[in-house]
């Protein structure tokens, strides 16, 4: 998600710094961004001048302080683990100038809880991007309890500059899209386990019958089954029984079948 947000932000005219815990991950992000931009240029979606300017706008520092100390906005895009997000926000709160907005790209978790660990809760917000970021048009923007009107307005304006549509969502676990996706995905796994239809036919039915761009099992593989399981566990804890993760999802995660990133989930992929 981070590399997709960086890709889109650079094309939107922003100067971007990507930070990660390892040089290997940064190298992969750089390769992905360069490759995707080149493909888009070859297909005529981008001009080569756009690509060149965007690539020159991106830096890849391994040091968080170097990446964030001059930022106007920082968008965190780590795993859906509250402890990790809080840890990063505490660090950013110390590193960033007092006017910097801190945004979390969470799909389920409370921006209020994350913001409360900083000295700038009024400048904290959730901006939920969708994968792949450069193709998906929506950003869910979630205001925390202390988020100011100014911060909300800036987040919406950033979304507009990135060429996205934004929806303002009241804070509640899972927001809008994640709650719906988790329920649909869970039921798709139930159908598969019961032998109602194959993986391919469940997805095909949803795409052709309900006009979904991706089937729920295909989407789960794209998101990552471990990520989906963490989301389900959080929603089950906060919203109750109907979000209990289906046993098949737990089994696949235990087996290391995490989707596209491992080469196998509900489908098999070429590495």
Give your account of this protein's structure.
- The strands form 2 sheets. A 5-stranded mixed sheet has the order 3-4-5-6-7, sandwiched between helices. Strands 1-2 form a two-stranded parallel ribbon.
- 50% of the residues lie in helices and 10% in strands.
- It is α/β, with parallel strands linked by helices and 271 residues long.
- The two termini are 19 Å apart.
- Helix 7 links the parallel strand 6 and strand 7.
- Helix 8 crosses helix 10 and helix 11 packs across helix 12.
- It has 12 helices and 7 strands.
- This is 3-hydroxyacyl-CoA dehydrogenase NAD-binding domain-containing protein.
- It comes from Neobacillus pocheonensis.
Distance between the termini: 19 Å
Q: Which word captures the global form?
A: globular
Average predicted confidence as pLDDT: 94
Given helix and strand content, the structural type is alpha/beta
* Rg measurement, Å: 19 Å
Low-confidence parts: none
Side-by-side strand order of the widest sheet: 3-4-5-6-7
Helix content: 40-55%
Overall strand count? 7
Beta-strand residue fraction: 5-15%
Number of helices: 12
Pfam families: 3HCDH (PF00725), 3HCDH_N (PF02737)
Domain 3-hydroxyacyl-CoA dehydrogenase NAD binding: 1-171
InterPro entries: 3-OHacyl-CoA_DH, 3-OHacyl-CoA_DH_NAD-bd, 3HC_DH_C, 6-PGluconate_DH-like_C_sf, 6PGD_dom2, NAD(P)-bd_dom_sf
Keywords: Oxidoreductase
């Amino acid at each position: 998600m981070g590399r997709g947000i960086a890709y889109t932000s650079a094309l939107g005219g922003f100067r971007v710094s990507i930070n990660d815990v390892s040089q290997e991950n940064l190298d992969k992000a750089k390769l992905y961004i360069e490759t995707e931009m080149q493909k888009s240029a070859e297909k005529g979606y981008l001009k080569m001048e756009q690509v060149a300017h965007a690539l020159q706008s991106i830096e890849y520092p391994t040091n968080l302080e170097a990446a964030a100390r001059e930022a106007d906005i920082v968008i965190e895009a780590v795993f859906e683990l509250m402890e990790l997000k809080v840890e990063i926000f505490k660090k950013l709160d110390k590193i960033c100038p007092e006017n910097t907005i801190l945004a979390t790209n969470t799909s389920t978790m409370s921006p209020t809880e994350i913001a409360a660990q900083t000295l700038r809760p009024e400048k904290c917000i959730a901006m939920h991007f969708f994968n792949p970021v450069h193709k998906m048009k929506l950003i869910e923007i979630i205001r925390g309890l202390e988020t100011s009107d100014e911060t909300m307005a800036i987040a919406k304006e950033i979304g507009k500059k990135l060429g996205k549509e934004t929806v303002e969502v009241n804070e509640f676990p899972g927001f809008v899209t994640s709650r719906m996706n988790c329920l649909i995905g869970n039921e798709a796994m139930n159908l598969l386990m019961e032998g109602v239809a194959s993986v391919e036919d469940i997805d095909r039915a949803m795409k052709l019958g309900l006009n979904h761009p991706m089937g729920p099992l295909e989407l789960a593989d794209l998101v990552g089954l471990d990520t989906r399981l963490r989301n389900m566990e959080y929603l089950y804890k906060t919203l109750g029984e109907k979000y209990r993760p289906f046993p098949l999802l737990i089994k696949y995660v235990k087996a290391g079948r995490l989707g596209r990133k491992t080469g196998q989930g509900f489908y098999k992929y070429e590495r």
